[in-house]
Write a structure and sequence with these properties.
It is a single chain. The chain contains 8 helices and 20 strands. With about 375 residues, it is an alpha+beta fold. Strands 5, 6, 7, 13, 14, 15, 16, 17 and 18 form a 9-stranded mixed β-sheet that branches. Strands 1, 2, 9, 10, 11, 12, 19 and 20 form an 8-stranded mixed β-sheet that branches. Strand 14 and strand 15 form a beta hairpin.
Length: about 375
């Protein structure tokens, strides 16, 4: 049986960031992934994620983002690949005096629809719409970020085993992990399993109120003669939904615009079985939005790609340790807002599994904020 200092289960962005942090500290670390790398079954694939320093949920999120930005810069330098492009982010709403002010941590300078049209002629907002431009925001190249974490992890002596599903975990002072590719032991275990978190955590007595959901990410083709590449990323806070997008960066001539709202699914393994009527209603909202806001895009998606979300009741991610076995820690519920946190989340999990107190880990991120039970 092969032994390591630490084992990390899940090679998405959170797990890969955690493995990277441990290996850079000189810890022998095994990173396990149930699918062949790369894959599109989880939440970390794709070409882009929006990132920004200003954040709407809690003050601690803004503190995390202030720490995350230089950590992304460090990873860029180590991997020698561009991971971030500063394009700005335009936030719009027609209930600005409540919605936008709550969305940012500081009082924003608001723009009206005419201001936006002058700055971005390819974008049309309703007359009563207001907006704010965060010039520091931009795009993280998602798949490249995951590969960069893994590249530096391997260069620091880490081991990756993909296509290797975990079958069971035996807790203790030494943790044993049974997989399709043999058994492994370590003094500590990190579980960063995305939409499979509930399944694997419940088997070791941790029950979290996580929901697996799906989002169809849509890409819209430019009409001939128009170039949307100079637009900022954006988020529109509408009355009954949130729509976000990024300028063409993944597919040539295609702009990514999609609903933040997700569709329930029974489990991560049945993600393609969803409420078709709800999916159709979501798509109809998007078509109407694209037709009115981006008149120089064809209002029919050229590409649709499915992505998994894992969310908590309060939409805040979870980082915590097992209630009985402190050498087993977990991170979950990052979807929709957690990719940008990945370097900090990985550092937190790496500290926690070593029985250190992570910087910025507040009670609002602990599992104890929910009513949970343990059979151990």
């Amino acid at each position: 049986m092969t032994s390591y200092d630490y084992i990390v289960v899940g090679a998405g962005v959170i797990g890969s960031s955690t493995a990277y942090a441990l290996a850079k500290q000189g810890k022998s670390t095994l990173l396990l992934e149930q699918f062949p790398i790369p894959h599109t079954r989880g939440s970390s694939h794709g070409g882009s994620r929006v990132t920004r320093k200003a954040f709407r949920l809690q003050e601690f999120h803004s503190q995390i983002m202030m720490k995350a930005y230089p950590m992304w810069e460090t990873l860029e330098k180590e991997a020698r690949v561009e991971l971030f492009k500063q394009v700005g982010m335009l936030s719009t709403t027609h209930s600005c005096h409540e919605g936008l002010i709550k969305y940012f941590t500081k009082q924003p300078k608001l723009l009206n629809s005419k201001d936006v049209s002058q700055m971005y002629p390819l974008m049309t907002l309703p007359e009563n719409e207001m907006a704010h431009l965060d010039e520091d925001a931009g795009i993280l190249y998602a798949s490249k970020c995951v590969m960069a974490f893994q590249k530096i992890f391997l260069s620091n002596g880490g081991v990756i085993k993909d296509n290797c599903k975990v079958r069971s975990i035996i807790p203790g002072d030494t943790v044993t992990v049974h997989t399709d590719d043999g058994d492994f032991q370590a003094k500590g275990l990190v579980l960063a399993c995305g939409p499979w978190s509930s399944e694997i955590l419940s088997n070791i007595g941790v029950f979290l109120p996580l929901k697996a959901r799906t989002v169809d990410v849509c890409y819209w083709k430019e009409k001939p003669g128009y170039d949307h590449s100079k637009l900022p990323a954006f988020v529109s806070l509408l009355e009954n939904c949130i729509i976000y997008g990024v300028p063409p960066s993944e597919y040539n001539g295609l702009m990514k615009i999609t609903l933040h709202d997700s569709v329930p699914c029974e489990s991560a393994d049945t993600r393609d079985i969803t409420d078709d009527e709800l999916v159709a209603r979501h798509l109809d909202k998007l078509k109407k939005y694209v037709a009115s806001t981006f008149p120089h895009l064809i209002p029919e998606p050229a590409i649709r790609e499915r992505c998994m979300y894992t969310i908590t009741p309060d939409t805040v991610s979870i980082i915590d340790s097992h209630p009985t076995y402190k050498n087993i820690v977990f991170g979950a519920g990052f979807s929709g807002q957690g990719f940008k946190f990945a370097p900090v989340a990985g550092s937190m999990l790496a500290d926690l599994v070593q029985n250190k107190t992570p910087d910025l880990l507040v009670d609002e991120m602990r599992a104890s904020r929910f009513v949970t039970k343990s059979k151990l």
